[in-house]
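Supplementary Methods. Inverse-folding protocol.

Structures were first reduced to a discrete structure-token string of length 211. This string, shown here, constituted the complete conditioning input.
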């Protein structure tokens, strides 16, 4: 049989080496993105609402190059959107963990409200979140921009259904929008939510879904 008659299979040496190369590069790129996200968040926190973070400052803090930045993000706005999304995922995971400590749906709702508002009670978290939102400008308001409400609302669907909500998806969505709005008020005003406010919001939600 001639050499030309030997056809490479789906899992030949070349394909396996190519997959290993792509896997290694994927791990490297994932590390780059994480460094850019963390550096971007830190630069924004450090600058506060006094100065917009610059790409040059972010790549310097990350120890990367401009080429590395633009390999993953087409603009600073894209990085800010990714930081917002990353923050939402962290908050969702935190709230899910807090809710897992309760068995009754009322307790889960309370944990959800307390955990969300706690973002304004911690000075460092509040300052960082406010700085990122300030850098975001109109990014989060765009239809295609990151939304914090959907992943947070998903956590409330089950307890709301257990509490008798006739439309747990809609009720959870409304609750998430409301808590994000209230949290934003505290962040921009640099105030902290009180225990009485938390109690009132929890009671409001429970009364609304058990109407």
């Amino acid at each position: 049989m001639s050499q030309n008659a030997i056809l490479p299979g789906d899992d030949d040496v070349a394909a396996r080496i190519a997959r290993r190369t792509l896997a290694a590069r994927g791990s490297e790129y994932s590390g780059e993105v994480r460094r850019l996200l963390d550096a971007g968040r830190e630069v924004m926190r450090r600058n506060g609402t006094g100065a917009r973070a610059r790409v040059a400052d972010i790549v310097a803090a990350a120890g990367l190059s401009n080429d590395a930045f633009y390999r993953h993000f087409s603009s600073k706005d894209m990085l800010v959107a990714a930081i917002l999304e990353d923050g939402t995922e962290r908050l969702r995971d935190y709230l899910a963990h807090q809710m897992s400590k309760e068995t009754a749906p009322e307790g889960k709702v309370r944990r959800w409200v307390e955990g969300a508002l706690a973002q304004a009670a911690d000075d460092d978290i509040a300052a960082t979140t406010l700085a990122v939102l300030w850098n975001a400008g109109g990014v989060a308001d765009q239809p295609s921009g990151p939304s914090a409400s959907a992943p947070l609302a998903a956590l409330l669907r089950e307890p709301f259904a257990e509490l008798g909500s006739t439309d747990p998806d809609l009720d959870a969505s409304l609750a998430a929008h409301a808590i994000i709005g209230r949290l934003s008020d505290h962040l921009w005003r640099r105030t902290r939510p009180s225990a009485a406010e938390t109690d009132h919001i929890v009671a409001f939600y429970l009364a609304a879904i058990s109407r």
